[in-house]
Specification:
- The chain has two domains: about 240 residues, P-loop containing nucleotide triphosphate hydrolases (Rossmann fold, 3-Layer(aba) Sandwich); about 60 residues, CBS domain Like.
- Helices cover about 40% and strands about 25% of the residues.
- The chain contains 14 helices and twelve strands.
- Strands 6-7-8-3-9-10 form a six-stranded mixed sheet, sandwiched between helices.
- The longest helix has 18 residues.
- The structure holds adenosine-5'-diphosphate and magnesium ion.
Amino acid sequence: MIEIDKITKTYGATQAVDSVSMTVETGTITVIVGTSGSGKTTLLRMINRLEEPTSGEVRINGESTLSLKPHILRRRIGYAIQGHGLFPHHTVARNIGAVPELLNWSRDKIAARVDELLDLFSMEPAQFRDRYPGELSGGQQQRVGVARALASRPDLLLMDEPFGALDPIIRTRAQEDLRRIQKRLGSTIMLVTHDMEEAIRLGDRVAVMDGGKLVQYATPPEIITHPATEFVANMVGDVERPLRLLSLIPLSEVVEEGSAEGEALPPEASLRDALSACLWTGRLAVPVVQDGRHMGRVTLDAIRARAELHT
Ligand SMILES: Nc1ncnc2c1ncn2[C@@H]1O[C@H](COP(=O)(O)OP(=O)(O)O)[C@@H](O)[C@H]1O
Ligand SMILES: [Mg+2]
């Protein structure tokens, strides 16, 4: 459990974070959302003491982070920022194994962990472990960046706008991957975003920041149905606008005869799901399968045609 207790950060006359208190349960994703300058990054960076709080404290499992040396603390807390931050001259395996290497894990244990994570991120270990970041697509680099942050099994993973540089459609897929992997590993994640849609998709709980203050801390359904302030209501109002139409059309409406490679989707999945699956994995079509029975495929061309019908 992570307890943030009346934490404050002042820069001169600016109250970047103003007495924020919240409790984060182990094994959950908490998303901190707010507009630019609302204090999200400062709040996150006070948790691993990249910034020292002006007042207040953070406790991890009852232990004040002030009682730990910052470098020890940062080994227990993973940190992933926008862009992947991979070492360009190191292989994928060395990048993912960087922190375990620092912690003196054995070679075998590091190699096993690297392969486990590549598998989890749907990247065939034999095919990817010896590649260099420059030989990967943007989505693959981003996955390796997150795998690296998870490699040493941190008590807590802090992520600051990790998907900010990704295309909005690929971002949906990246969010789904993170959610699935977080469930599998039972990781505790605090993620910062300015995108309320991302917050609602990913968060077990959502913390809304405005002007350095925590204005609401609640589950996504509560945020949507009972926004605490007008500011929160406005942020919720913007959700899903760009891709709303595609998310309303089920695959059953556009499924056609033929086969396709890779992971299948059910007929009730939306065109938006299929679009993100295609773009994320570089496929031109996805198979549609219901209860194990092959129904056909949905192609990227068909999705584009439907999208254009509405524009
Ligand atoms: N090192 C700093 N020195 C002075 N002001 C800062 C510093 N870091 C952040 N701020 C100010 O604190 C406020 C919150 O910033 P930040 O935490 O980066 O917000 P967000 O991540 O939500 O965009 C902003 O007004 C910003 O200008
Ligand atoms: Mg920020």
